[in-house]
Write a structure and sequence with these properties.
heterodimer; A: about 230 residues; alpha/beta; Rossmann fold; two-stranded antiparallel ribbon; 5 helices; about 20% helix; globular; disordered C terminus; B: about 80 residues; alpha+beta; Mth169, Chain: A; three-stranded antiparallel sheet; 3 strands; about 35% strand; elongated
Chain lengths: ~230, ~80
């Protein structure tokens, strides 16, 4: 499973994603934002950070990076795409996911660990996770307050596209939304950082079911430590 | 072709909470400005644009605002356009 991890000027979580994917048995490669092609990849991750300095708005400039045309084409063809934190912001700006991420309700940059509940396993990010399970994941953002029109919210609910919800809403997101997916369920965006929670030595291995889902990996618990093994033929 | 000076004011839409504006407004009575209300915080973007005439310039700036300078999900733009220097 080859995963392209897009690097924008100002991205800062790309190596964490590469490490986590390698740990889970995937093959991650960095893709520069100026490239027009993604190459031979089976999935794409837009990592966290501050693409283009978050100038104007987070993701506003990144969405016009040359590589984004290829990402949109890949997503529209059904390819799995996950945007983490700043990557989620880029996906909303690019129109691949609805809504927007505005400044946190209390105007504080939040760097902490939160609990989120897996609301559906019908998404590229959660298909190997357990519905209703609670995951402890780090968040690290100033603009993670998910917002959308009432119509869009009704649509997300009706189509079961709210993938993750905060148990204790940290940032004011509407309906406690921490992550959503596209109508095709192949594009997912989330504010928490699963790549920073892929080994118990990091304080949590709860990111494994999420990145493991992206890789199509079976998630197993081994000696109290969550690991994932690459799926055989699945 | 003429040059037009443009000032775009980007503000959060009226239905979107503006915590910066609300915080400023709450601090005003203590400073003796209790009569001030309706504070909204946004950003101002200035530039010039070359166009055949004013309607053409305005049309281009509107498109620029829609596609790039604002996020229409949460923001509105007010366009002020005049003769360029």
């Amino acid at each position: 499973m080859k995963v392209g991890v897009v690097v924008f000027p100002g991205s800062n979580c790309e190596h964490d994603v590469v490490e986590a994917i390698a740990l889970l048995g995937g093959d991650a490669q960095l893709v520069w934002h100026g490239d027009r092609a993604l190459g031979d990849v089976d999935a794409v991750v837009l990592p966290g950070g501050f693409a283009h300095g978050d100038y104007l708005r987070p993701g506003a400039i990144a969405r016009f990076s040359p590589v984004m045309e290829a990402v949109v084409e890949f997503a529209n063809a059904g390819g799995p795409v996950v945007g983490i934190c700043n990557g989620f912001q880029v996906l909303t700006e690019a129109g691949l996911l609805p809504g927007a991420l505005q400044k946190n309700r209390r105007l504080k940059f939040i760097c902490t660990t939160v609990e989120v509940r897996v609301e559906t396993t019908e998404s590229t990010l959660t298909r190997r996770a357990t519905a209703g399970s609670v995951l402890r994941l780090p968040i690290n953002h100033f603009e993670g307050n998910y917002t959308c029109s009432p119509d869009v919210l009704a649509e997300l609910r009706a189509e079961d596209r709210i993938v993750l919800r905060y148990l204790d809403n940290p940032n004011g997101s509407v309906d406690d939304i921490a992550g959503i997916c596209s109508a095709g369920r192949n594009v997912c965006g989330l504010m928490p950082h699963p790549e920073r929670a892929c080994d118990t030595i990091l304080g949590s291995a709860d990111g494994v079911p999420l990145l493991g889902s992206l890789l199509g990996a079976r998630v197993v618990v081994r000696k109290g430590r969550l690991t994932a093994s690459p799926a055989s033929g699945a | 072709m003429s040059t037009y000076a443009v000032l775009v004011e980007v503000t959060l839409r009226p239905d979107v909470a503006d915590p910066q504006g609300a915080t400023i407004e709450r601090s005003l009575p203590a400073l003796g400005f209790g009569e001030v209300a309706g504070v909204r915080v946004g950003k101002a973007i200035r530039f010039t644009v070359d166009a055949a005439d004013e309607p053409a310039a305005r049309a281009r700036v509107e498109e620029l605002c829609r596609r790039f300078l604002t996020n229409p999900v949460i923001e509105d733009a007010t366009i002020n356009l005049g003769p360029g220097s």
